[in-house]
Amino acid sequence: MKIYTRTGDKGETGLADGTRRSKADLLFEALGTADELNGQIGVCRSIKENEKLEPVLARLQDLLLAIGSVLACPSGQLRGKPIEARHIQETEKLIDEFTAPVPDLKNFIHPGGSPLGARLHVSRSVCRRLERILVRIDREAELPRDLMVFVNRLSDLLFTLARYATHSAGSEETIWTPDRI
Q1: 18-174 architecture in CATH?
Q2: φ, ψ for residue 20, nearest 5 deg
Q3: In this structure, which long-range contacts are made by residues 92-99, counting pairs with CB atoms below 8 Å and at least 24 apart in sequence?
Q4: Is residue 30 a contact partner of residue 38, using CB atoms and an 8 Å limit?
Q5: d(CA 40, CA 133)
Q6: Nearest to 137 by CA among 29, 2, 7
Q7: Cβ contact 148:95 at 8 Å
Q8: Widest pairwise Cα distance in the chain
Q9: Can you give the C-alpha Rg of the chain in angstroms?
Q10: pTM for the full model?
Q11: pLDDT value at position 84?
């Protein structure tokens, strides 16, 4: 099978349900951002700085592909499993688990700390962009509520994992102080 089809050469592309839309459609912005986030998490996995995070990050990649499946089938004809309340609960449990060993945070911090922590912060910021795009889509075509809540929790989890990775590596977080401006 050839990877190129030439069907998108005029600025349109197909969705999994067979519909065609402009590549400028906000839906493709969401799909591309979910893909970018998946790629960023793949970079995090390649760092191999914290073995405990490997299965968590692999799971997040699977869930991001499930999000893509939902978005690529606006007609509702899913090719995979949807994001459900159980995924939100699973994510909240992970947030609690990885928050426990990390010092309480009372200030803003600079993204960074350890190499893995820094990449997880980048992943978090991409996730926040995905969430903003999904909110814009949701205003026009209602998205599944569990998907919207999950993406919100996912950014919280990525922040938590960034802090955990930095703490586990023995690195310090840089606290932002306004007097340095």
Answers
A1: Up-down Bundle (1.20)
A2: -115, 140
A3: 92/153, 94/56, 94/157, 94/160, 95/153, 95/156, 95/157, 95/160, 98/157, 98/160, 98/161, 98/163, 98/164, 99/160, 99/163, 99/164
A4: no
A5: 18
A6: 29
A7: no
A8: 59
A9: 18
A10: 0.91
A11: 94
